[in-house]
Protein 1
Amino acid sequence: MNKKTVEDLIVSGKKVLLRVDFNVPMQDGVITDDNRIVQALPTIKYLLEEDGKVILFSHLGRIKTEADKPKNSLAPAAARLSELLGQPVKFVGVTRGKELEDAINHMKNGEVLMFENTRFEDLDGNKESKNDKDLGTYWASLGDVFVNDAFGTAHRAHASNVGIATHLDSAAGFLVEKELRYIGGAVDNPDRPFVAILGGAKVSDKIGVIENLLKKADKILIGGGMAYTFMKTLGYKIGTSICEEDKLPLAKELLEKAKGKIILPVDLVVSKEFSADAAHRVTNYSDIQDDEMGLDVGPNTIKLFEKELKGAKTVVWNGPLGVFEFEAFSHGTRSICEILSKMKNAKTIIGGGDSAAAAIQMGYEKDFTHISTGGGASLEYLEGKPLPGVEALADQEPCDCGSDCGCH
Ligand code: AMP
């Protein structure tokens, strides 16, 4: 990565603006998964050890009306962070103004402050999400340097990432650096064989990813809802399975381009209803009845995928292989977790989103080389697109040792 990292900045005694992604799931004000807060700890702890004044901010949910504010306050995230750090985190419940400015000006080295949800600014003309120039300038005026550790929003140009970075010396935090190293490394410089596993609901969400991975991966194993559009374009009956009719020509084109690289399911778990307790059966890919829909991959598909994964050195996975939210249709996704958890000689990377949630929920959190914290961001990175939140950060200064030493 040619961007500065947090270790390239001098932060002692400085007001460090740290954009984190604390967009954590909450129920009635209680955080149900603090993974994103935990993942931000290395950067926060480093800045504190280096005697910085750490000013944190994040978005949380979407803010369309005043009524969205209370349930999307970051106060519970500040409280959780305080528990994890074992030190006070001063929470300031506004996004601008004298109260915030005074609180920042009174900070001592090694203290942490967090201000309110950046998207509260969206109530006034989507200032945060549209990267309002004045808002970015104002937030930048609150600090001396800027660190972006919010990988989950790196694919968006918002005032709280791109806006601020245009005014201050800036760097990537450890989490952003780690995400880029693992996902970027896997796609651009993979140890081979490199196998990608793609699932999830729709082909349309992942066209860019499939196209990019067709150029890079040795095999692409496809499951989940998106498999049916591919199966239909090959002439198979898919019953009432999810299918994007308008993407049939594209699916055909991708299969032609793939020249055998794409592997589709050979059997499926089908049902007449989309529900948790629906009766279901396993059937061959060519035997789906008109009133049946495929909701998971079958056991022979798992065996086939396991065979294709054997010996792989790099595996990137995005999208569950079935409707994992229903126990009856979660076996494909669970089996992939199980297979990948045993591949100790491979780099195994989950590209965020629902497959990350499924792996964590199923207890495989520690068994992967990397589970991305960003769904949309990791998808765009897998597509090979630049991430505006990263692009806006300061470049590393060239080494002055005078040779091609690879210092950076
Ligand atoms: P995505 O966000 O694109 O990764 O899609 C995740 C969603 O795809 C999950 O909510 C799954 O329930 C859903 N999904 C996976 N397989 C199927 C399927 N065969 N039919 C319908 N939805 C599916």
Protein 2
Amino acid sequence: MTQALEWKGSYLRIIDQTRLPFQKVYVDLHTIQDVHHAIRSMQVRGAPVIGITAAYGLYLGVKDFPNDHISQFQDQVAAHAEYLKSARPTAVNLAWAVDSITNKLRQLQITDVEQGKRFLLEQAQALHDDDRRRCEGIAQNGVPLIPQRARILTHCNTGALATGGIGTALGIIYKAHQNGKEVVVYADETRPFLQGARLTVWELQQAGIPVTLICDNMAAWLMKQGHVDLVLVGADRITRHGYVANKIGTYNLAILAHHHKIPFYVAAPISTFDFQLEHGDDIPIEERDCEEIRNILGRCEVAPANTSCWNPAFDVTPPEFVTAIITEAGVIETPVSENIRQLKENLKLTIH
Ligand code: MRU
């Protein structure tokens, strides 16, 4: 399974996801600016993995910190945290990773800059390992929801390329396949960045799981023909009332699934929950360059040069369309909002 990133001792190596599957190009990130650029340009993408990348970025930003003034060091880390968070606004995993590490650093009250540097690297590596375990937990909890024979429609890419492990929604599919379930996947192409066509199809083909590519506008008809048993997607941010931000086009699928009485599952780690937000309208939605729509991957123009476009990268699905949210800590059934509150209490999460 091709992993999105690898720590190489003093720098971070990522696989450039803008070039996949046509070229396997690795990019080495040595500085915090490299990290910011890789996240912003989507060379590395997917909610959990941009959190991990940013965590390594915090370390890279201070690894050559020139003096031993601890308060200057702390100020530098705080400024870097804001810089990294500005790379992409919707996936809360990025802010969650950066904020939880900087909060811990502050609480440590370190007196030595070298100790601070070591701490940041250890935290990034721990987060990376932790995400691997979270993916396994999601897969374990999700597999029982998959029928012995299942035709699954998915959107965007939620696999090894998007996480530190086997993936979220795709991780469940991998595990179901390993456990002998007969799963076949329909992958939405996921315009405009084509994460479904380029990344999900590629990952599934490598794993030997049957996959059929469809254009995003074919899902309704596919469901109407009776070819979909369930929809399974990931998430970039889930509010405490169960509003789910995910790749643009997810909301369409949720409405369609509801209309056709098909289960609609969301798979995400607890790090994707934003317990501070209630409603979907509060989630910041990234808007990207129009060139991504006018041009397919910068290669082929599909509209007149100056065509006006609108390019929101995410949408928000309200909880009434979500059958269940599958996490590493358990499955949150409807009523989603009440059960998220319950789960948070059970986990004794201190975030409000
Ligand atoms: O813009 P992207 O490719 O970063 O968006 C990714 C998604 O929307 C995924 O569905 C989500 O991050 C879950 S990944 C496990």
Protein 3
Amino acid sequence: MVKEEMEAMVLNNIAIRARNLYIGYDEGEKILWALNGIDIDIPKNTAYCIVGESGSGKTTFGNAIVGLLPPYVVTKGYLEIYNNKVIDNDRLNYSGIRGDIAVRIPQNPIASLNPYLKIESIFLDVLKHRFKSISREKAFEIALEAIRSVGLSDDVLNKYPHQLSGGMSQRVAIALTIAINPEIIVADEPTSNLDAYLKGTVLNLLKSIISKGKTLIVITHDILFASALCNFIAVMFMGSILEIGRVVDILTNPLHPYTKELIDAANLSYTNFKH
Ligand code: ADP
Ligand code: MG
């Protein structure tokens, strides 16, 4: 294969590419840099976990991917999503990407659902945004299929968000994402506030998303959950990526003391984890 062809193949296989990416929050007299020049290539069709302690910049990176950064951010370097430069130094352009190609599963599903709309109407709104001229019938069909795929019964569509339990709203949030059918899904701390049983359910739902050939980015401080779900792990610390590798390599041979600490804290060794 000629060199250009090989380069094109690699390029076409990358869902997310960051080069020397800085993202800061303008705090008036100074800028707080949440990302300090990160470089990463996230291939299509993988489950990629971003782990690290609170404040290390995980959510900022996730929001950069889905185009949900606040207006007062300061940016340098670049970020490409499906070969679109969404961040090019100080220019941001997410048209065609935000809400279509890259979508976030909300961290707090109950708060993210409009309390005055029935779940069916929430689906309709989201699907109208995604597929401009979709008919009501088609939207209902997609909503029904998505609701069933996360193990909820059809009557959930007829309920208001406050009538759902925490676990049900978590499933609705995932069903909404499935209905949008994006290429990249970012799940930010999908298991925080969940009990062990629901954690297992969410794990399986996210696994079913992966099996659809999507790129899944899971942000978590739970390296145990990450290792059960992901192919790759990137470890973040104070706005930088400390190390990136396949789950097996990171767990069996962590290079950085901080990564060892994360693994020790989870009391995890490769021998007691099965993929
Ligand atoms: P993590 O998700 O790993 O906890 P974040 O990306 O939320 O990390 O935060 C990284 C740093 O950026 C922290 O110091 C945090 O206080 C700051 N930060 C995050 N979001 C904002 C924001 N919207 N405005 C100002 N500072 C923020
Ligand atoms: Mg966070």
Protein 4
Amino acid sequence: MFTIIICKSYEEVSNKAFALFRDMVKSKPNCVLGLATGSSPLGTYQRLIDDHRINGTSYKDVVTFNLDEYIGLPEDHPESYHTFMKQHFFSQIDIRPENTHLPSTEGDEVKNCEEYEKMLEPYDIDIQLLGIGSDGHIGFNEPGTPFDAPTHVTELDHRTIRDNARFFGNDISKVPTKAITMGSGTIMRKAKKVVLIATGANKADAIYGMIKGDKDVNCPASVLQNHPDVVVIIDREAAGRL
Ligand code: F6R
């Protein structure tokens, strides 16, 4: 079930997502957060950092699982998602590094997927933050991925590679072509609540497909039509086709 919140700006989207995550951490100090990277969550993370600094909200018992990581970049590469999370969130709060999880892409990739599923096994994700790709992906579950997919190795869609070139000096040839992603099936099974944030007109087709389109693997986010609790926080441009 979707609860749709349409906002005036990226700031308002970030404020609303922040409030949901802060309330979770305050009401359940040992909660499990599902986290995303990319441009959409930056404002949310900044607000959580500010709240930690100003109000002392603590993450010492919080556990996190991220959605995905590029294959082919070392973990300490400036554009890896390991680096992104350290830089934009983990290093600025009091979370224990051993409580943070991202898929490892070093060594045997298939084994790493199995291990990530195993790591997740004892947990439920209390609240899962998602962005959405212009092609409708969640995590890196690209169009065509079965709705029940577990954590897996994925080939990035050409639209994802094009969209993410901005992080690689606009050089498409530098963008990794593969990643490990938590599967759509894993997200559906593990996340008790989903908060999906998106801004900008380039997300309008994907948001429409997710909410009003057919449940179809060509729009991976449409699997969320089967989820009991999805809060969609978007600006007017992303809501343009609703
Ligand atoms: C990132 C992720 C992706 C992004 C999506 C939107 O961990 O899983 O699904 O959420 O590509 O990215 P932005 O927010 O940069 O538009």
